[in-house]
Structure formats: structure tokens, C-alpha cells
Amino acid sequence: MSLDSTRQQTLKLETLIVEQQEFTLFVTLNRPQARNAMSLKMVQELNQVFDHVSTTPSIRALVLRGVDGHFCAGGDIKDMAGARAQAAQTNNAQDAFYTLNRAFGQMINRADKIPCVVITILEGAVLGGGFGLACVSDVAIVAKDTQFGLPETGLGVVPAQIAPFVVTRVGLTQARRLALLGERFDGEEAVRLGIAHYLCDNKQAIDDTLEKVLGKVRRAAPHANRVTKSLLHQVGTIEMDTLLDGAARDFAAAVKSEEGAEGTLAFVQKRLPTWAD
Prior knowledge:
2-enoyl-CoA Hydratase, Chain A, domain 1, three-stranded mixed sheet, Lyase 2-enoyl-coa Hydratase, Chain  A, domain 2, disordered N terminus, alpha/beta, 11 helices
């Protein structure tokens, strides 16, 4: 699938609606009959979109949302039944369920590493895999009455591919409570926990907040934003002096770059830089 044709028009896939407007790619989960639960088809289509975004520097923001007032109600139970049937045919249940589960984790990990700004609009149900996607967004805008939760243990299964991202987002202490008790909570609590950043009372407030956030993305230099996001991802994964050495090299390169020159000149001349026009 090529997304080159999405600029200024809508591309409707089997499970997604994709539309590019200027520097922003809007991706809408489109399985309303299942509250946008993730099927394997949706996972595959999201991976293709994420690959495209990651290799297209002109896309500076990715907005993820769901149709009909729900973000995502988790994984599709029908896929679990399909894996069960496959396991019965091949007499190898572990491989079938492993493959199904691992596909979700690979998709969320890919979303986590997208170099542009990832914005989630969280409404209705944000459960399971939807919760995982929320936890890897750079900016999350949430409706007050949104319902979050990790229902897996109540179903006798494990939030295997989601839990690590929840821990990274909210810390181990809170993640233990949420995962082991299957806690349900609303948008206000999501902001308190750090899962979301902007709390909204209604759809108009969500749309207004999104417009303001995209205005801030426009103000930030595209390449500088990508380098900064990469730097933030490295914190805690490599030794600090090594990290800071690399960050200093990134800083020096940025100062000498066309972006750096333009940003400095724009500041001196008291005007917006070209990327913010």
C-alpha cells in the first residue's frame, strides 16, 4: 500500500481511514461494530501506515482517533477464536497464540518509535491494546468520560504486550494496581496518572485542543523534533556520559544546520521561521 496519494484527500482502507492535511496525517480506527477493537487486519494496516510515516519527513504529526466516539476496545476476540481453530488444525496452540499476541506488541513498539509527534484522541473505550497505543503517544487528549482499563486478567489472560508500555508511562507501582486489579478509570484519572495530558469536557473542546497542539507542532522545527524524540527514547537505555556525548554532537549538528541558521535568524528578526509559516 502506498500512501503517497493521501495528501489533501481521504484514503479509506479496510479498517482505517487515512487523511493527510498539510504536515499532519490523520488515522482513524474504523471498526465501529466492534468499538474499534484491533483485528489482525487493523494491526497490519497500522504497521503499513507507521512505516510510511517513519520514512516521510514531511509528516510532522500523526493523529490517532477512533470512529463513533470510541478509541479502541482492545483486541478482537474473533482473532483469538481464529487462533484457537488454527491451533486445533496444527496441534500447536502455543505457536498460534504466540504469533497473534506478538503481532500486537510489534505494532505498538513500532508506534512508539515513530519519529514524528504522535497524538492520540482518547474517547469512549480505551482498553487493552488501545490502552497500549495511548501509552506510546507523545501527546494524549482525553474526554472526561473516557473509560480506561486493562481487562486481561479478568478474562484469564495476560496483558503481555501492553504491560511494559504501561510501566514506562505510569511507573511500576501504578501499573501493578491497574493490571493486577483490572481497574477501570476515567479521563480525569488518566491525566492524573500521566497517561493523558489534556482533559476535555466535550467533542468541541477536543477539536479545539487538537488545533492548539498542532499549532505548537507547526512552531517546532521538523528535524529538531525528530532528533529530540530519539534522544528522549535513549534515556535509561545507555550510560549517561555516552548519551550526553551523542546529544552534544546532535546539538552541534543542529546549530550548523539550515534549520538552526533559520531559527536563529528568525529569532533575531522577530519573525516566525519558515517551517512555522
